[in-house]
Design goal:
CATH topology of the largest domain: ABC transporter involved in vitamin B12 uptake, BtuC
Number of domains: 2
CATH class of the largest domain: Mainly Alpha
Radius of gyration: 29 Å
Order of helices and strands: HHEEHHHHEEEHHHHHEHHHHH
Largest sheet: 2 strands, antiparallel
Shape: globular
Number of helices: 16
Length: 432
């Protein structure tokens, strides 16, 4: 193909993929705005001005700084909201990477919730079971983090094994391991001594990692927490810590692994065609198990980063159900088109919607769950992103297939016409 024949930026396949995701986001926000207006205009508790305030928060709530003395919404840089967005984005980015990496190898990892739970259990057991002073705080943090990743990798390997050796669909295997994990984790914490009895109103919770075991009793003050690396100075009043930096590094690492290494090529080859990959000498069974193990470790690392922050509590009795963070990784991966770098931005967007929901609850009479409507629409449209891309691509093909008018021949220069006339006259004389 000549250089001039290459498609323009607007006609490239990558552009169509990006546009499909942007269309999903815009439509989701528009639908959320319409819902906000309908609820506001039909509710007795919300005035017309309140409905339009809700609409403003839907599109720019992350920049809301509250209300002034007159009761009007104020806008500007809100370090607490942005810092909390970064903190909430960390586990979502990790579970999104989990789903995206598995999907790149042809597997649908719907088992991220179970892997997230197993990572939570291993992380908290290690962080809280080592007596205070037995090891340096940073080493306990690292051991707890690695234990969580290992637990998630082992739990993720189970669906990979039954897929590779028994050809059982990984979705069915993941659903079963999710609920097994929920019940196992509930039983483990219920039978442990990690329940928070030091604070009498929190007996249903597990101790934060800032609590330590001293002479058989848990006491506050132990600093097992993710360092903030100065981010608390940039975003004062928020929960942000270095976990978001680790998540970004993990995304870059996964991008390099999948696109720049032999292992990544083999994993994607198995996803494209397992039988062809085996014919080419690639160990397909090993790669399937390895892919699900990597996915499980990523999902569990999201839980480890969340609960090692030092300011989060684990309410163990609720985990007879499944954690939302595991499922939120699916729309993040879909929205990012399974690109590890795109997962970072999609995770930040989803976390921003959560902060917007809290702003709606705190500043208006709306319920924060309206943002779930936006997320649901985006999820559905992300699932149909292939249809959107097909529509955009078909328009591109129709445009390329349109017959182009042939250029008219340029008139010959006067000198050439005169020369042709002389030649014709000479030929005519010779014939005579």
């Amino acid at each position: 193909m000549k250089k001039n024949d290459q498609p323009s930026l607007l006609r490239r396949d990558g552009t169509a993929k990006l546009l499909s995701s942007l269309i999903s986001i815009v439509v989701g926000l528009l639908v959320g705005g319409i819902v906000v207006l309908i609820v506001g205009l039909t509710s007795d508790n919300i005035s017309v001005s309140g409905a339009f305030e809700g609409l403003q928060l839907i599109f720019a709530g992350i920049l809301s700084t509250g209300r002034d003395a007159a009761g009007n919404l104020t806008w500007g840089f809100n370090p607490a909201s942005i810092g909390n967005m970064l903190f909430r984005a960390t586990p979502i980015i990790m579970t999104g990477l989990s789903v995206a990496v598995a999907f790149k190898t042809g597997l649908f990892n719907i088992g991220a919730p179970g892997q997230y739970l197993m990572g939570t259990a291993a992380t908290l057991f290690v962080a809280l079971s080592i007596p205070a002073g037995a090891l340096p705080g940073w080493l306990i943090w690292l051991l707890a983090f690695l234990a969580g990743c290992a637990a998630g990798a082992i739990w993720g390997a189970i669906p990979g094994l039954v897929k590779a050796f028994l050809n059982i669909n990984e979705v069915l295997a993941c659903i079963m391991t999710n609920w097994i994990a929920a019940n196992v984790v509930t039983w483990l914490f219920d039978s442990s001594n990690l329940k928070n009895v030091a604070e009498s109103t929190k007996t249903g919770y597990i101790y934060k990692t800032t609590f330590g075991l001293v002479d058989g009793q848990y006491v506050a003050g132990r600093g097992i927490a993710t360092p903030k690396l100065g981010l608390d100075k940039l975003f004062p009043g928020s929960q942000v810590n270095a976990g978001i930096i680790i998540a970004i590094i993990a995304a870059i690492g996964m991008y390099i692994l999948m696109n720049k290494t032999t292992l990544g090529y083999e994993l994607k080859a198995c996803g494209a065609n397992r039988h062809a990959a085996r014919y080419a000498g690639i160990r397909d069974k090993r790669n399937i198990v390895l892919s699900m193990s990597i996915a499980g470790a990523l999902a569990a690392s999201g839980a480890a980063l969340y609960y090692l922050s030092g300011n989060t509590e684990f309410f163990w009795t609720t985990y007879q159900s499944l954690p939302a963070e595991g499922f939120n990784g699916i729309p993040v991966a879909l929205l990012a088109l399974n690109n590890p770098i795109g997962v970072v931005f999609a995770g930040l967007f989803m976390a921003m919607l959560r902060i917007v929901g809290l702003q709606l609850t705190n500043l208006t009479a709306y319920n924060e769950y309206i943002t779930d409507v936006i997320i649901s629409v985006i999820v559905y449209l992300s699932a149909f992103s292939l249809v959107i891309r097909m529509f955009l691509t078909s328009r591109k093909k129709r445009h390329a297939a349109e017959p182009k008018p042939e250029p008219e021949p340029e008139p010959a220069p006067p000198e050439q016409e005169a020369t042709e006339t002389i030649v014709e006259e000479e030929k005519g004389g010779d014939e005579k």
